[in-house]
């Protein structure tokens, strides 16, 4: 029985790639230095999988930003603004597309399906001159081979690539991206031919869009594309890999009929209905790569259940055609549990990170081949039993409180229009009020103090003093810039979810459980292992301190329940919505304590609400119902004069705009600038929005500083579709990842633009 890994984390066990990237971007190291770190990480990953006994080891899953951008580079599909003139694409062009540069903005970034990972969205049109412009896939295959490791080169499939793209600015909306398929396939043929010449015997084509609801012409594109590639693929074993959800029945028929394809990979963790399709019909002589080890979560596999599933599949496809696999790339999990020295032994026994999942996949494959590791299987059964019976998992009071939520929709008693009037009387804000999203730059010194406080090297008194000084600096800067609604800058927080999870019961934390979000940005998701409650106030001390430093409104800053849920590793022993309701009740307690503490504006971020939307439309309504309800629970008890903000970023929002309205927030700030003001189109199409809204006026994920004229132009576009009395002016997202040398001029230009338009509106009266 063979084993396979779909993909593996890139950052390294101690975020080696992150630090190498940031050093390169800051000009402190060379491209050669970056490539050396990358090569060392790849070598270690291949060696680890090989030594574990993995037969099908992936290559070309290691990206300096993301795998879709790698594909854009491979195809030479560089937008004209980056000045690419042909030849092999270098790091300068590559990172300009990802991050922008001093003269041009970055390409749009959005969520990778329903994960917290992001990708750079290709910008395509009829004029794109596709060419084979990055030989990375072939080079990495050769690199592994030189180390004595035979790998399966992985490419984003051609149809998924086009369906994950967007029409470039200026291209007709009606333009069919699939019309570019013949040009794209010509480059894929070159790549595949070169891989064959290098000695590859297998190739993996990731086609994750196959789990979506696809119209007939899109399914036909798959049939046509693989028929066109058939002769080029001849002589190779071809795996088409899917993940993240069930395969629709009609899509399954199309997929399993594709020309030139040897094997099919399915997510059997999140795609349990796909199992029924396989049982009903699977093409004779083809390989089934069975994704039974969860690539999206960190819980130990249930060996007994997996063996049962695999034995059943073995009877359908044959022993020699079944391959044990991960459900998706392990990119979405932490790297190695060995690095966790502070987790207690009980919780640690319940977990498996990427390195442990490689062991799990191979243990299952060996067990099915008659070489069961009895000690490993016994330890697995004991850990599962421990988790089921542990008293730390269950809190009866929390369960009763969550059960009592049934029967109410938890709406505030007064409509948003009346609330906004009451809030304006209290806050007395100008037209087009300015604000920021929450965080301010986190300096090296600030991170040092926070790190040393956690390590008990700094006293609590000295820590509070340092945080107070930082908050005062941020408050003074905002007053100097004349921003209307202030934030305290969140100096006490490393991560918006981790900070809250550390203060809630039912959460555990890792020391090195980092997961890549985009580029060099890593997050450390908490582990929700049990029922959730709030033992004491979490933010009131800092928010009240900040409010005492200014007469301007100070926002209390919270992370919403859906975002905490979606950005955590969530327990898999109860439905996600039940866990979300528990978190909502904990945040509700915090909101009401902030209000009692004199905070009149409270922001409850739901950055990840859209991210959790199921991939299949039939499941949308149920998710949106409980997700929106969870948000309303958090603030249903506040007074009309307390203004509730929320924030969302880097997803496609237009299709859920009515659910966003149903959240009943007083003000929503939402990403807009990096996606070419795509959000505004929903208002042009007639959607009426009566609450306050702040579509982002500049992209904070790029070091580029926008001019006041550029920001004013963006605000004027907003005023064409939104009433001036509901429009706010703010950046796209928090400022934590930027430097003060970028933040100060950008915010100054933002405030200047708002003041200019206020004066123009006043003159026009």
UniProtKB/TrEMBL annotation:
Catalyzes the transfer of a methyl group from 5-methyltetrahydrofolate to homocysteine resulting in methionine formation. It is an enzyme of class 2 (transferase). Residues 432-755 form the Cobalamin-independent methionine synthase MetE C-terminal/archaeal domain. GO terms for biological process: methylation. The gene is LOC108839717. GO terms for molecular function: 5-methyltetrahydropteroyltriglutamate-homocysteine S-methyltransferase activity; methionine synthase activity; zinc ion binding. This is 5-methyltetrahydropteroyltriglutamate--homocysteine S-methyltransferase. Binds 2 Zn(2+) ions per subunit. The lineage of its organism: Eukaryota, Viridiplantae, Streptophyta, Embryophyta, Tracheophyta. Zn(2+) 1 binds at residues 647, 649, 671, 733.
């Amino acid at each position: 029985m063979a084993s396979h890994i779909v993909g593996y984390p890139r950052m390294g066990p101690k975020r080696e790639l992150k630090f190498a990237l940031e050093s390169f971007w800051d000009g402190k190291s060379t491209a050669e230095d970056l490539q050396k770190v990358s090569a060392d990480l790849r070598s270690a990953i291949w060696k680890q999988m090989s030594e574990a006994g993995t037969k099908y080891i992936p290559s070309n899953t290691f990206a300096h930003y993301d795998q879709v951008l790698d594909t854009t580079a491979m195809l030479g599909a560089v937008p004209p603004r980056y000045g690419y003139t042909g030849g092999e694409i270098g790091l300068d062009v590559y990172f300009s597309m990802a991050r922008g540069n001093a003269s041009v903005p970055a390409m749009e970034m959005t969520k990778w399906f329903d994960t917290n990972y992001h990708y750079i969205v290709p910008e395509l049109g009829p004029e794109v001159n596709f060419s084979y412009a990055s030989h990375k896939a072939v080079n990495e295959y050769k690199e592994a081979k030189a180390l004595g490791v035979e790998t399966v080169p992985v490419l984003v499939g051609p149809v998924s690539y086009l369906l994950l793209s967007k029409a470039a600015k200026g291209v007709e909306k009606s333009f069919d991206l699939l019309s570019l398929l013949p040009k794209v396939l010509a480059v894929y043929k070159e790549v595949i031919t070169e891989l064959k010449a290098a000695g590859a015997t297998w190739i993996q084509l990731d086609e994750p869009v196959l789990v979506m609801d696809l119209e007939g012409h899109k399914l036909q594109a798959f049939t046509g594309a693989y028929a066109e590639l058939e002769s080029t693929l001849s002589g190779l074993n071809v795996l088409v890999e899917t993940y993240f959800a069930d395969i629709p029945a009609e899509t399954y028929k199309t997929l399993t009929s594709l020309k030139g394809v040897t094997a099919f990979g399915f997510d059997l963790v999140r795609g349990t209905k796909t199992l029924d399709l396989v049982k009903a019909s699977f093409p004779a002589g083809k390989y089934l790569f069975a994704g039974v080890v969860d690539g999206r979560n960190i819980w130990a596999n249930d060996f007994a259940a997996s063996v049962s599933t695999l034995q059943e599949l073995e009877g359908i496809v044959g022993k020699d055609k079944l391959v044990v696999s991960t459900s998706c790339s392990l990119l979405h999990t932490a790297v190695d549990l060995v690095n966790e020295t502070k987790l207690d032994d009980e919780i640690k026994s319940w977990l498996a990170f990427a390195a442990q999942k490689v062991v799990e996949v191979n243990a299952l494959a060996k067990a099915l081949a008659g070489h069961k590791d009895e000690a490993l299987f016994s330890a697995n059964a004991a850990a599962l039993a421990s988790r089921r019976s542990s008293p730390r998992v269950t809190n009866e009071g929390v369960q009763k409180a969550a059960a009592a939520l049934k029967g109410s929709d938890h709406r505030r008693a007064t409509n948003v229009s009346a609330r906004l009037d009451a809030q304006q009387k209290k806050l007395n804000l100008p037209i087009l009020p300015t604000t920021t999203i929450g965080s301010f730059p986190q300096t090296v010194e600030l991170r040092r103090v926070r790190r040393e406080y956690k390590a008990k090297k700094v006293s609590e008194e000295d820590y509070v003093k340092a945080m107070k000084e930082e908050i005062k600096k941020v408050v003074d800067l905002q007053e100097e810039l004349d921003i209307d609604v202030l934030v305290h800058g969140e100096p006490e927080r490393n991560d918006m979810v981790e900070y809250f999870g550390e203060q809630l019961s039912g959460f555990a934390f890792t020391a090195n459980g980092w997961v890549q979000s985009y580029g060099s940005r890593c997050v450390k998701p908490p582990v929700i292992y049990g029922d959730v409650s709030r033992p004491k106030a979490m933010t009131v001390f800092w928010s009240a301190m900040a409010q005492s430093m200014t007469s301007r409104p100070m926002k209390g800053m919270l992370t919403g329940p859906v975002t905490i849920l979606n950005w955590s590793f969530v327990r898999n022993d109860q439905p996600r919505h039940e866990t979300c309701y528990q978190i909502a009740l904990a945040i509700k307690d915090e909101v009401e304590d902030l209000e009692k503490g004199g905070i009149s504006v409270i922001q409850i971020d739901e950055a990840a609400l859209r991210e959790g939307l199921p991939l299949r439309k039939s499941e949308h309504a149920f998710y949106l119902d409980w997700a929106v309800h969870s948000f309303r629970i958090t603030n249903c008890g506040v007074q009309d004069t307390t203004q509730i903000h929320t924030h969302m970023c880097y997803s496609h929002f237009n299709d859920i705009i009515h659910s966003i309205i149903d959240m009943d927030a007083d003000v929503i700030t939402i990403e807009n600038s990096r996606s070419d003001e795509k959000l505004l189109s929903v208002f042009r199409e007639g959607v009426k929005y009566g609450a306050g809204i702040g579509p982002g006026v500049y992209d904070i994920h790029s070091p580029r500083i926008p001019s006041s004229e550029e920001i004013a132009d963006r605000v004027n576009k907003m005023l064409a579709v939104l009433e001036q009395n509901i429009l706010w002016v703010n950046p796209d997202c928090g400022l934590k990842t930027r430097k003060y040398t970028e933040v100060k001029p950008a915010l100054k230009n933002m405030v200047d633009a708002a003041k200019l338009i206020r004066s123009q509106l006043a003159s026009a009266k």
